[in-house]
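Design a sequence for this backbone.
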């Protein structure tokens, strides 16, 4: 399930790419499919890094990676262990909504980005997210749960105030929104709900088989009910 549109990301051989909050590795794998890139996958959770490493090893075995120079590391987005202006592309997907000190996290993401290079960020879209919050307290009270909702204008201003230029945006994963509403309605921690389990099977089937019909439906409804807001920025080199 790729959230970022890599066609919007100018990637060249030799570029250093950071996937901050790589989770189970969907964007990390996609970045490693770009020729001769140097990719780093980072996350706060050690178990997710192991999952990503295994996924990369699988893709390596089937010769699906064009980048052989990749690394994994456990780290905190509010205190990144990299020199300033170290990366040509920074990806941060579905992370900032979990971080209490998001101002520090955004400053760190900007600090490590080279002038003229790209930052791609995604967060939950505001109105589908508000429905989840209204349906279930457990949804945002859980450990490492969501601590805020980002209106589009607010997050763009937060990032542009640090010297970046906003390039554009889109919405993604519309077919996932009803799943999360349904899950919150019955209780996000329940595992015995037949409707939720059936919907989850549909999403897994869509992920594995990638049928044209669900891809078409997702694109059709993304402007209306896309679950994720995806934003693209360029480091103009200015510092406010």
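Sequence:
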């Amino acid at each position: 399930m790729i959230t970022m549109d890599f066609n919007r990301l100018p990637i060249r051989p030799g570029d250093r790419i950071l996937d901050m909050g790589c989770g189970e590795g969907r964007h990390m794998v996609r970045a490693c499919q770009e020729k001769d890139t140097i990719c780093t996958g980072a996350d706060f959770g050690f178990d997710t890094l192991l999952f990503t490493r295994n996924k990369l090893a699988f893709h390596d075995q089937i010769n699906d990676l064009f980048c052989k120079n990749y690394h994994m590391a456990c780290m905190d987005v509010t205190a990144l262990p990299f020199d300033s202006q170290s990366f040509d592309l920074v990806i941060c997907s579905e992370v900032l909504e979990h971080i209490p000190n998001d101002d520090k996290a955004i400053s760190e993401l900007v600090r490590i980005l080279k002038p003229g290079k790209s930052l791609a960020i995604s967060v939950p879209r505001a109105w589908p997210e508000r429905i989840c919050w209204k349906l279930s307290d457990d949804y945002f009270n859980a450990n490492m749960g969501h601590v805020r909702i980002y209106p589009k204008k607010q997050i763009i201003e937060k990032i542009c105030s640090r010297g970046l230029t906003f390039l554009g945006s889109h919405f993604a994963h519309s077919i996932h929104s009803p799943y999360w509403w349904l899950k919150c309605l019955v209780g996000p921690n329940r595992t015995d709900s037949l409707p939720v389990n059936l919907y989850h099977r549909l999403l897994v089937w869509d992920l594995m088989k990638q049928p044209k019909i669900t891809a078409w439906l997702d694109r059709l409804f993304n402007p209306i009910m896309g679950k994720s807001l995806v934003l693209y920025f360029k480091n103009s080199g200015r510092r406010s």
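The chain has nine helices and seven strands.
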